[in-house]
Write a structure and sequence with these properties.
Bound molecules: S-adenosylmethionine
Shape: globular
Number of domains: 1
CATH architecture: 3-Layer(aba) Sandwich
CATH topology: Rossmann fold
CATH superfamily: Vaccinia Virus protein VP39
Number of strands: 9
Helix content: 25-40%
Length: about 220
């Protein structure tokens, strides 16, 4: 794939329209999320041939059998994280890095892990090039990254069969985990709030469809 990093009027306009749709029709109310979505150039993650698709609310193949999540999914998960400037966030499933950019744009310090080497190598190069710096890791994120724990927030961008206990243990007290949980066809978005050392509150929300989270604590 050939990537080009130019933000033309056509893409600027399409991005503005998408953000308006997320706010007015899809129930995204967090102004920080909307501001980040207005800034991050989603077409930078597409081959130029497909730029016309970049600001539709659709998932899209990013190579290696993986997808860039729909803008609504990215906004929805980001909103559930209640991000504050300086939050230390673990993202499991870097993919092309679009979600990573949204988190960074919102002021988070991001640790992101991807299990597919080709995606990891590409994203680790592209993100700093377009101005987004994160800590990139290659490996099985279903176990989290214990060496850098605890985290204020953890976001999982692939569908898990259950909430891995090892992940909630890597949250700070007051921290939030956002993870899609279900079978491989459909998942419900789940948030887990770490209330104290041993107390957790779980909320089950809307249905989504993600690629599977593969690994030791997953499929
Ligand atoms: N966050 C991306 C975006 O901005 O659109 C989309 C991520 S894609 C839906 C899910 C990613 O999770 C894939 O790149 C996949 O390879 C990765 N993945 C699946 N299981 C994983 C695991 N155990 N550890 C790390 N990454 C994993």
């Amino acid at each position: 794939m050939a990537y080009k990093f130019i933000d033309n009027y056509r893409e600027k306009g399409a991005r503005k329209k998408l953000v308006k749709e997320l706010a007015e029709k899809k129930g995204i109310t967090d102004t920080n999320v909307l501001a980040a979505m207005a800034k991050v150039k989603r077409h930078y993650f597409f081959d130029e041939t497909f730029w016309a698709q970049a600001y539709l609310d659709k998932a899209f193949p990013i190579g290696d059998g993986q997808t860039i999540s729909t803008p609504y999914t990215v906004a929805y998960q980001s909103q559930l994280l209640h991000i504050k400037k300086g939050d230390k966030i673990l993202e499991i499933g870097t993919g092309c890095g679009y979600q990573t950019c949204i988190l960074i744009e919102m002021g988070a310090q991001v640790y992101t892990i991807e299990r597919q080497e080709a995606l990891f190598n590409r994203t680790k190069k592209v993100l700093p090039y377009i101005g987004y710096n994160a800590h990139f890791f290659l490996g099985d994120g279903s176990k989290g990254i214990a060496e850098h724990a605890p985290y204020d927030k953890i976001i999982v961008t692939a569908g898990a069969p259950l909430v891995p206990e090892i992940l909630v243990k890597q949250l700070k007290i007051g921290g939030i985990l956002v993870i899609p949980v279900g079978d491989t066809k459909q998942q419900k978005m789940v948030t887990v709030l770490r209330v104290s050392e041993n107390d957790f509150e779980k909320f089950v929300l809307d249905a989504f469809k993600f690629v599977p989270l593969l690994g030791e604590q997953a499929w």
